[in-house]
């Protein structure tokens, strides 16, 4: 019972921290209309977690990963993904621009966000599947990658449809391709790559724990 209370207290702490960060980044965003569009994702995820909380409470690991992803997303929503000034921050810290050091010609924050989607959310997706009855094993590691791939593709279609419906300036801001015609394919590939890394690490950790359990037995 005490463990359950500590767990819920940890989850509430993460919620409180996120609300503070969300509130700070909601102040004077770069583009209010784009900020509102980007926050539809947050509203949808929050609604899903609230509606399903009686059946699924994320573990500490899963909750922390979700928290980290949402913080990255909120940073992109505040500045718009194509204008997050990470290069200026790095230059202020080191005296040199990160883009110049790595030879990048575009703002890469959106790439980080898509990679983080797979890397940080594949494990929570797996946890949900296992709680729903999927047996831990091969398919519990493969299916989250499939889900990341499919949802990433759906999101790219939503972005494309949104850009068509919205007026030119807001549509381009929401789409954030930065004149890269292969932007959707690269985003999907990065999300899948992040999910693959997450599931490889999960598989290694699970196998190590099983071996230690067998040794202890």
From TrEMBL:
The chain crosses the membrane at residues 36-52, 64-81, 188-205. The keyword Transmembrane applies. The keyword Membrane applies. Keywords: Membrane, Transmembrane, Transmembrane helix. It comes from the Bacteria. It comes from Stutzerimonas zhaodongensis. This is DUF2238 domain-containing protein. It holds the Pfam family DUF2238. Signal peptide: none annotated. InterPro entries: YjdF, YjdF-like.
């Amino acid at each position: 019972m005490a463990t359950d209370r500590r767990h819920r207290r940890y989850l509430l702490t993460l919620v409180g921290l996120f609300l503070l960060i969300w509130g700070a980044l909601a102040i004077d965003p770069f583009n209010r209309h784009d900020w509102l569009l980007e926050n539809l994702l947050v509203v949808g995820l929050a609604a899903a977690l609230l509606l399903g909380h009686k059946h699924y409470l994320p573990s500490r690991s899963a909750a922390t990963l979700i928290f980290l992803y949402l913080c990255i997303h909120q940073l992109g929503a505040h500045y718009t993904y194509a204008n997050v000034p990470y290069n200026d921050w790095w230059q202020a810290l080191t005296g040199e621009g990160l883009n110049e050091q790595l030879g990048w010609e575009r703002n890469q924050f959106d790439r980080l966000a898509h990679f983080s989607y797979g890397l940080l959310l594949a494990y929570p997706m797996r946890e949900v599947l296992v709680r729903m009855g999927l047996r831990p094993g091969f398919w519990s590691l493969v299916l989250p990658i499939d889900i990341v791939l499919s949802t990433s593709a759906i999101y790219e279609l939503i972005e494309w449809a949104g850009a068509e419906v919205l007026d030119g300036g807001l549509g381009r801001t929401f789409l954030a391709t930065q004149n890269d015609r292969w932007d959707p394919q690269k985003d999907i590939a990065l999300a899948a790559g992040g999910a693959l890394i997450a599931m490889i690490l999960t598989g290694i950790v699970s196998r190590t724990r099983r071996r230690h359990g067998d040794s202890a037995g």
